[in-house]
Structure formats: C-alpha cells, structure tokens
C-alpha cells in the first residue's frame, strides 16, 4: 500500500464546509485582510473569542491567518463585551458599522490597558486621566 501525503488543498473544501456549520456571522467572514486587502473568508479563521487578560479584557477578537497571503494576526473590537451575554449579543445582533471598527492587533499600543483604565475610572468618578 502506497503512503500518500495529504496537503491542505486536499481538505480545504471539507474544512470550509465544516467551518460553515458553526454559523459564523458574515460580517466576520467578509472582513478584509489587513495585509492583502482580500476578503478573509472561512478558511482564514483560526479562532473567535473574548479576551480576558488584563490589558485587553473585554476585547472581542478574531484570530486570522489569511488564506490568500498567509499573514497571521488578530482583528479586535476594543472593550466590546462586559460579559458572555454581550459576546452572544455581538454575534447575534451585529451592526455593519461596528465591523468597520475592527482593527488588527499589531496596532494596539502596549500602553493600552483596559483593566487599568477601568480601575482608574472607578477610583476617579469616571475620569480616566490620572
């Protein structure tokens, strides 16, 4: 029996069909790659979720490895969710205007910290300046 190697191209149609069964909203799939500007499509998606680390807590993210140019990055919406219900609502009741605000993660300055900003805001009656 001959040992045959299977390439990504051999399973891409099945992979795309499987991803589609997750009912990922079109506004995610139709995002443009930040490098090649092509629509990312289903095969570029790696993960979708909610950031819980202190610096990016509450950010909605889509991990991408572009199927066209192989550039990897995350798209994010800053401080988009305060809880899981917000995440579900974002995925179910999305507005296209919000999708236009998604940014690639390599543009997030290291000085941005959602948790620290919330703590300062809470201790200063809503003022985020120290």
| Class by alpha and beta content | alpha+beta
How does the major sheet shape up?
Answer: 4 strands, antiparallel
Please indicate the percent range of residues in DSSP E strands (runs of 2 or more): 15-25%
- The number of strands is 4
Low-confidence stretches are none
Number of domains: 1
Span from first to last CA? 71 Å
Total helical segments: 5
The SSE string, one letter per element, is HHEEEHHEH
Helix content: 25-40%
How is the largest sheet built, in terms of strand order? 1-2-3-4
Overall average residue pLDDT: 83
Shape: elongated
The value of Rg in angstroms is 18 Å
Characterize this entry briefly.
The chain is α+β, with helices and mostly antiparallel strands and 130 residues long.
List the keywords.
4-stranded antiparallel beta sheet; 31% helix; single chain; 5 helices; 15% strand; alpha+beta; 130 residues; elongated
What would you note in describing this structure?
Strands 1-2-3-4 form a 4-stranded antiparallel sheet, with no helix packed on it. The protein has helices at residues 8-20, 26-29, 84-92, 96-99, 114-123, and strands at residues 45-50, 60-65, 72-77, 103-104. The mean pLDDT is 83. With 130 residues, the chain is of the alpha+beta class. It has one domain (8-123).
């Amino acid at each position: 029996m001959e040992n045959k190697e299977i390439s990504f191209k051999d399973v891409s149609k099945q992979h795309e069909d499987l991803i589609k069964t997750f009912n990922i909203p079109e506004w995610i799939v139709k995002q443009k790659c930040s490098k090649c500007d092509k629509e990312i499509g289903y095969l570029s998606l790696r993960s979708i979720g909610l950031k819980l680390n202190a610096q990016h807590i509450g950010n909605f993210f889509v991990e991408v490895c572009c199927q066209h140019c192989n550039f990897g990055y995350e798209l994010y919406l800053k401080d988009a969710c305060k809880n899981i219900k917000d995440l579900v609502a974002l995925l179910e009741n999305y507005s296209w205007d919000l999708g236009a605000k998604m940014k690639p993660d390599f543009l997030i300055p290291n000085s941005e910290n959602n948790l620290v900003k919330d703590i300062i805001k809470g201790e200063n009656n809503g003022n985020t300046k120290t």
